[in-house]
Amino acid sequence: MRNLTIGAVMMTAATLLATSACGGRGEEGGTTATGECKGQQTTGITDTSIKLGGIYPLSGPSSAYGEIPKGTKAYFDHLNAEKGGINGRKIEYSFRDDGYQPPKSVEEARRLAEQEKVFAIFQTLGTPTSTAVMEYANQRKIPHVFVSSGASKFGADATKYPWTIGWQPSYLSEGRLYGQYVKTEKPNAKVAILYQNDDFGKDYRTGFIEAIKGSGVTVVSEQTYEVTDPSIDPQMRNLAGSRADVLLDITTPKFGSQALAADARNTDWNPLHIINTVASSPTVLKPVGFKNVQGIVSAAFFKDPSDPQWDDDAEMKLYKDKLKQYAPGLDSTIPYYTQGWAAAASLTKVLTAMKCPTREGLMESARNLQGVASELLLPGVTMTTGPKDGYPIESLQLQKFSGERWNLFGKIIDTRGATG
């Protein structure tokens, strides 16, 4: 446990009263059976402020994701200006660029934790990068919350990594959802799979393979790529040669656009193209041409700002109005901003519910969510966690691209239990 700093000793009387109720210097955080708080990690939180820091690829091959924190910042600016922050504490939010390079991710995590003295690292983007941060954060007992990756590792082992928790549905669950869909729609389908050669791609593939086990669906071709590859055109040519009925496209935005473009160019091959949520943004599809991506299938867990069915939705109207006010110039129909806003709103629920204003109190709150609804999540999608359940959101709905937007179909599917 870190010693109290001079800054902590000099906190205001109100903060001292709050933290003194948190007991002594016990190594374990949270609350006792009698409701008393314990734990002394008050770095980054005072009676008037909470410091949060995020890490994103603002540059490099995955820089499309660099738009997400802009939506997050707009939400916190709105919260601070119009609601006085959270329980009287204003959010001081900053985010750093790691270029999607794990060593740089750790460097930025150190800067946030040791120089900027953040209360928590919120929303690191990417599987390999977040894995590197997870090791550092858990060694230092720093909250690493709502990781922006669905890799199963970020919620699977709360004992080994008690300071890290995911947010979005796991890739394993999403892969199983696609497998179930293919079994229903094309029970004897031959499937070709393109996936990134890391935990991100392997989780999706594993979930899909598990879902089709014992059915008439077979995988006839698989191709992998590295995040450093300039192109996946060779892989797409090999997959096309399989003449598969279904293409499962497990890519990040840059490679998602390439895969869709290659599929469109090959007029002799017309598979059902399923693209994972990571690469389903209209910013990925638009360069390919909307006419070339008609009928592709994906999934969603938060509201699409370009979908007219949400035009009169109170949450969506608030989001668009406040994004315009606090982040002028941003296009509110781009889902990356919506995702950032939704993640910030979800964290606000956790921070509001903290029983003790400590890092331990934050993690206790994050691991005790019970059916919590949050802004911009699809109706029926809520957050639920437990001491051994590190997957707050485990529901998805399928969607198909038609015209110039995604169209939801079917029912919300709770994949709870598919990630264990």
Structural features:
5-stranded parallel sheet; Leu-bd; 2 domains; Rossmann fold; alpha/beta; 420 residues
Structural class: alpha/beta
Query: Order of strands side by side in the largest beta sheet?
Result: 4-3-5-6-7
Second rung of CATH, namely the architecture of the largest domain: 3-Layer(aba) Sandwich
**CATH-defined topology of the largest domain:** Rossmann fold
Please state the oligomeric state of the protein chains shown: single chain
Our measurement of the CA-to-CA distance between the termini, rounded to an integer number of angstroms, reads 31 Å
Number of helices: 14
Signal peptide: 1-23
InterPro entries: Leu-bd, Peripla_BP_I
Protein name: Amino acid/amide ABC transporter substrate-binding protein (HAAT family)
Domain Leucine-binding protein: 49-400
What does this structure look like?
The protein contains 14 helices and 15 strands. It is α/β, with parallel strands linked by helices. The strands form four sheets. It has a five-stranded parallel sheet with strand order 4-3-5-6-7, with helices on both faces. The chain has a four-stranded parallel sheet with strand order 9-8-10-11, with helices on both faces. The longest helix has 18 residues, at 335-352. Residues 1-30 have low confidence and may be disordered. Residues 49-400 form the Leucine-binding protein domain. This is Amino acid/amide ABC transporter substrate-binding protein (HAAT family). Residues 1-23 form the signal peptide. Belongs to the leucine-binding protein family.
